[in-house]
Design goal:
The mean pLDDT is 79. The chain is mainly α. It has helices spanning 20-40, 43-53, and strands at residues 10-12, 15-17.
Length: 54
């Protein structure tokens, strides 16, 4: 959550919950960025991006 634009939680009482649709969209967005970067990055840049995305 601290590494990127992860969806904001919603509070239900003291519990934090996330919308499954928003989390799924976030996952798909990350995978698209990773896929695009895999095709365009040099191997040393790809390793750095992998560290940021994990």
């Amino acid at each position: 959550m601290g590494k990127g634009p992860f969806p904001a939680p919603r509070k239900i009482g003291r519990a934090s919950v996330w919308s499954s649709a928003e989390v799924q969209q976030w996952i798909e967005d990350i995978l698209q960025v990773k896929e695009a970067s895999d095709q365009q990055c040099a191997p040393e840049e790809k390793g750095r991006l992998d560290q940021v995305l994990t």
